[in-house]
Amino acid sequence: xxxxxxxxxxxxxxxxxxxxxxxxxxxxxxxxxxxxxxxxxxxxxxxxxxxxxxxxxxxxxxxxxxxxxxxxxxxxxxxxxxxxxxxxxxxxxxxxxxxxxxxxxxxxxxxxxxxxxxxxxxxxxxxxxxxxxxxxxxxxxxxxxxxxxxxxxxxxxxxxxxxxxxxxxxxxxxxxxxxxxxxxxxxxxxxxxxxxxxxxxxxxxxxxxxxxxxxxxxxxxxxxxxxxxxxxxxxxxxxxxxxxxxxxx
Length: 249
Hints:
SecEffector_AnkRepeat
Protein backbone atom coordinates (compact mmCIF):
# COMPACT_ATOMS: atom_id res chain seq x y z
CA UNK A 1 0.00 0.00 0.00
CA UNK A 2 1.37 3.36 -0.86
CA UNK A 3 1.61 6.25 1.56
CA UNK A 4 -1.32 8.14 0.10
CA UNK A 5 -3.57 5.11 0.58
CA UNK A 6 -2.44 4.69 4.16
CA UNK A 7 -3.12 8.34 4.93
CA UNK A 8 -6.52 8.18 3.30
CA UNK A 9 -7.58 5.23 5.52
CA UNK A 10 -5.71 5.92 8.74
CA UNK A 11 -8.98 6.52 10.66
CA UNK A 12 -10.80 3.42 9.37
CA UNK A 13 -11.22 0.29 11.44
CA UNK A 14 -8.64 -2.29 10.35
CA UNK A 15 -10.02 -5.04 8.16
CA UNK A 16 -8.71 -8.36 7.12
CA UNK A 17 -6.82 -8.56 3.91
CA UNK A 18 -9.65 -10.38 2.11
CA UNK A 19 -12.35 -8.02 3.42
CA UNK A 20 -10.62 -4.91 2.17
CA UNK A 21 -12.31 -3.46 -0.89
CA UNK A 22 -10.27 -2.60 -3.89
CA UNK A 23 -9.20 0.98 -3.78
CA UNK A 24 -8.51 3.21 -6.73
CA UNK A 25 -5.17 4.69 -5.75
CA UNK A 26 -5.55 7.44 -8.29
CA UNK A 27 -8.55 8.78 -6.39
CA UNK A 28 -6.67 8.66 -3.11
CA UNK A 29 -3.84 10.87 -4.25
CA UNK A 30 -4.04 14.32 -2.86
CA UNK A 31 -4.95 16.91 -5.42
CA UNK A 32 -2.21 19.51 -5.82
CA UNK A 33 -3.58 23.04 -5.57
CA UNK A 34 -3.70 24.57 -9.00
CA UNK A 35 -2.04 27.76 -7.82
CA UNK A 36 0.89 26.14 -6.00
CA UNK A 37 3.19 26.01 -9.03
CA UNK A 38 2.45 29.54 -10.15
CA UNK A 39 2.94 30.96 -6.65
CA UNK A 40 6.24 29.11 -6.28
CA UNK A 41 7.36 30.32 -9.69
CA UNK A 42 6.47 33.90 -8.83
CA UNK A 43 8.43 33.73 -5.59
CA UNK A 44 11.57 32.04 -6.88
CA UNK A 45 11.74 34.22 -9.98
CA UNK A 46 11.02 37.50 -8.24
CA UNK A 47 13.69 40.16 -8.66
CA UNK A 48 14.21 40.43 -4.89
CA UNK A 49 14.70 36.69 -4.48
CA UNK A 50 17.03 36.46 -7.47
CA UNK A 51 19.10 39.36 -6.17
CA UNK A 52 19.38 37.73 -2.74
CA UNK A 53 20.44 34.40 -4.26
CA UNK A 54 22.96 36.09 -6.53
CA UNK A 55 24.50 37.90 -3.56
CA UNK A 56 25.72 34.55 -2.24
CA UNK A 57 27.11 33.35 -5.54
CA UNK A 58 30.22 34.07 -7.53
CA UNK A 59 29.97 35.10 -11.15
CA UNK A 60 28.67 38.05 -13.13
CA UNK A 61 25.03 39.10 -12.95
CA UNK A 62 23.17 39.46 -16.22
CA UNK A 63 22.87 43.25 -16.02
CA UNK A 64 26.67 43.54 -15.68
CA UNK A 65 27.60 41.37 -18.66
CA UNK A 66 27.71 44.30 -21.15
CA UNK A 67 30.56 45.85 -19.12
CA UNK A 68 32.79 42.84 -19.79
CA UNK A 69 33.64 44.54 -23.08
CA UNK A 70 35.78 46.95 -21.01
CA UNK A 71 37.77 44.18 -19.32
CA UNK A 72 41.44 45.25 -19.78
CA UNK A 73 42.45 41.71 -20.72
CA UNK A 74 39.86 41.61 -23.48
CA UNK A 75 40.79 45.07 -24.69
CA UNK A 76 44.44 44.12 -25.01
CA UNK A 77 43.48 41.14 -27.13
CA UNK A 78 41.34 43.31 -29.39
CA UNK A 79 44.24 45.64 -30.15
CA UNK A 80 43.12 48.26 -32.67
CA UNK A 81 39.49 48.04 -31.56
CA UNK A 82 40.40 49.25 -28.06
CA UNK A 83 40.30 52.97 -28.88
CA UNK A 84 36.90 52.64 -30.51
CA UNK A 85 35.48 50.83 -27.47
CA UNK A 86 36.99 53.13 -24.86
CA UNK A 87 35.59 56.44 -26.12
CA UNK A 88 33.99 58.52 -23.40
CA UNK A 89 30.76 58.70 -25.38
CA UNK A 90 30.53 54.90 -25.57
CA UNK A 91 31.23 54.42 -21.87
CA UNK A 92 28.83 57.22 -20.93
CA UNK A 93 25.99 55.84 -23.04
CA UNK A 94 26.25 52.35 -21.53
CA UNK A 95 26.68 53.58 -17.98
CA UNK A 96 23.82 56.08 -18.18
CA UNK A 97 21.40 53.40 -19.37
CA UNK A 98 22.56 51.04 -16.63
CA UNK A 99 22.20 53.62 -13.86
CA UNK A 100 18.73 54.55 -15.06
CA UNK A 101 17.72 50.90 -14.80
CA UNK A 102 19.46 50.01 -11.54
CA UNK A 103 20.29 53.24 -9.70
CA UNK A 104 23.51 53.97 -7.82
CA UNK A 105 22.64 51.45 -5.09
CA UNK A 106 23.88 48.69 -7.39
CA UNK A 107 27.33 50.22 -7.85
CA UNK A 108 28.87 48.40 -4.87
CA UNK A 109 27.94 45.03 -6.37
CA UNK A 110 29.25 46.17 -9.77
CA UNK A 111 32.61 47.14 -8.27
CA UNK A 112 32.82 43.89 -6.29
CA UNK A 113 32.37 41.86 -9.47
CA UNK A 114 34.19 44.09 -11.98
CA UNK A 115 36.88 46.06 -10.18
CA UNK A 116 38.01 47.96 -13.27
CA UNK A 117 34.61 49.66 -13.43
CA UNK A 118 35.66 51.89 -10.53
CA UNK A 119 38.04 53.72 -12.83
CA UNK A 120 35.55 53.98 -15.70
CA UNK A 121 32.64 55.17 -13.53
CA UNK A 122 34.87 57.75 -11.83
CA UNK A 123 36.22 58.90 -15.18
CA UNK A 124 32.68 59.28 -16.50
CA UNK A 125 31.63 61.29 -13.43
CA UNK A 126 34.62 63.64 -13.77
CA UNK A 127 34.44 64.01 -17.54
CA UNK A 128 30.70 64.77 -17.51
CA UNK A 129 30.88 66.88 -14.32
CA UNK A 130 28.58 64.64 -12.27
CA UNK A 131 29.44 65.70 -8.73
CA UNK A 132 26.51 63.79 -7.19
CA UNK A 133 27.87 60.56 -8.67
CA UNK A 134 31.38 61.43 -7.47
CA UNK A 135 30.00 61.99 -3.98
CA UNK A 136 28.34 58.57 -4.09
CA UNK A 137 31.59 56.98 -5.26
CA UNK A 138 33.42 58.58 -2.34
CA UNK A 139 31.05 56.79 0.06
CA UNK A 140 31.85 53.47 -1.61
CA UNK A 141 35.61 53.92 -1.77
CA UNK A 142 37.96 56.75 -0.91
CA UNK A 143 38.59 58.85 -4.01
CA UNK A 144 42.09 59.50 -2.70
CA UNK A 145 42.90 55.84 -3.41
CA UNK A 146 41.81 56.07 -7.03
CA UNK A 147 44.66 55.78 -9.50
CA UNK A 148 44.64 58.14 -12.46
CA UNK A 149 45.16 61.85 -13.12
CA UNK A 150 41.57 62.90 -12.57
CA UNK A 151 42.47 66.49 -11.69
CA UNK A 152 43.93 66.76 -15.18
CA UNK A 153 40.63 65.49 -16.60
CA UNK A 154 38.62 68.03 -14.58
CA UNK A 155 40.85 70.82 -15.87
CA UNK A 156 40.57 69.51 -19.42
CA UNK A 157 36.76 69.80 -19.17
CA UNK A 158 37.18 73.26 -17.59
CA UNK A 159 35.20 72.37 -14.45
CA UNK A 160 36.62 74.03 -11.37
CA UNK A 161 33.91 72.62 -9.07
CA UNK A 162 34.85 69.03 -9.92
CA UNK A 163 38.56 69.82 -9.60
CA UNK A 164 37.98 71.34 -6.16
CA UNK A 165 35.83 68.37 -5.10
CA UNK A 166 38.59 65.92 -5.98
CA UNK A 167 41.37 67.97 -4.40
CA UNK A 168 39.43 68.48 -1.15
CA UNK A 169 38.94 64.72 -0.84
CA UNK A 170 42.60 63.99 -1.16
CA UNK A 171 42.86 62.87 -4.76
CA UNK A 172 46.43 63.55 -5.92
CA UNK A 173 46.24 62.59 -9.60
CA UNK A 174 47.54 65.82 -11.11
CA UNK A 175 50.31 66.92 -13.47
CA UNK A 176 51.35 70.14 -15.20
CA UNK A 177 48.71 69.27 -17.80
CA UNK A 178 46.03 70.55 -15.39
CA UNK A 179 47.29 74.14 -15.28
CA UNK A 180 48.17 74.02 -18.97
CA UNK A 181 44.52 73.13 -19.68
CA UNK A 182 43.26 75.86 -17.36
CA UNK A 183 45.48 78.36 -19.18
CA UNK A 184 44.18 77.21 -22.56
CA UNK A 185 40.60 77.76 -21.36
CA UNK A 186 41.50 81.17 -19.94
CA UNK A 187 40.23 80.04 -16.54
CA UNK A 188 42.20 82.36 -14.29
CA UNK A 189 40.35 81.20 -11.17
CA UNK A 190 41.38 77.60 -11.84
CA UNK A 191 44.97 78.65 -12.55
CA UNK A 192 45.09 80.53 -9.24
CA UNK A 193 43.52 77.62 -7.37
CA UNK A 194 46.07 75.15 -8.70
CA UNK A 195 48.94 77.54 -8.04
CA UNK A 196 47.95 78.18 -4.42
CA UNK A 197 47.01 74.63 -3.46
CA UNK A 198 49.20 72.38 -5.55
CA UNK A 199 52.83 72.29 -6.61
CA UNK A 200 52.80 70.84 -10.11
CA UNK A 201 52.78 74.23 -11.84
CA UNK A 202 52.56 74.40 -15.61
CA UNK A 203 54.81 74.34 -18.66
CA UNK A 204 55.78 76.97 -21.19
CA UNK A 205 53.25 75.35 -23.49
CA UNK A 206 50.50 76.48 -21.11
CA UNK A 207 51.64 80.07 -21.52
CA UNK A 208 51.73 79.62 -25.29
CA UNK A 209 48.17 78.24 -25.28
CA UNK A 210 46.91 81.15 -23.19
CA UNK A 211 48.55 83.61 -25.58
CA UNK A 212 47.30 81.91 -28.76
CA UNK A 213 43.73 81.92 -27.39
CA UNK A 214 44.06 85.58 -26.36
CA UNK A 215 43.78 84.95 -22.61
CA UNK A 216 46.02 87.86 -21.70
CA UNK A 217 45.14 87.89 -17.98
CA UNK A 218 46.16 84.25 -17.62
CA UNK A 219 49.33 84.76 -19.65
CA UNK A 220 50.28 87.70 -17.45
CA UNK A 221 49.58 85.72 -14.26
CA UNK A 222 51.80 82.84 -15.36
CA UNK A 223 54.67 85.20 -16.12
CA UNK A 224 54.26 87.38 -13.04
CA UNK A 225 54.40 84.33 -10.76
CA UNK A 226 57.31 82.72 -12.56
CA UNK A 227 55.24 79.75 -13.65
CA UNK A 228 56.17 79.92 -17.33
CA UNK A 229 58.02 82.03 -19.87
CA UNK A 230 58.21 82.39 -23.59
CA UNK A 231 60.86 80.15 -25.06
CA UNK A 232 62.67 80.64 -28.34
CA UNK A 233 60.35 80.00 -31.29
CA UNK A 234 57.54 79.44 -28.79
CA UNK A 235 54.78 80.14 -31.30
CA UNK A 236 56.05 77.71 -33.93
CA UNK A 237 56.67 75.08 -31.26
CA UNK A 238 53.19 75.51 -29.82
CA UNK A 239 51.49 75.32 -33.20
CA UNK A 240 53.36 72.14 -34.11
CA UNK A 241 52.41 70.57 -30.78
CA UNK A 242 48.78 71.61 -31.14
CA UNK A 243 48.62 70.15 -34.63
CA UNK A 244 50.04 66.82 -33.46
CA UNK A 245 47.55 66.60 -30.58
CA UNK A 246 44.43 67.76 -32.41
CA UNK A 247 41.52 67.69 -31.66
CA UNK A 248 42.62 67.69 -27.99
CA UNK A 249 43.92 71.25 -28.22
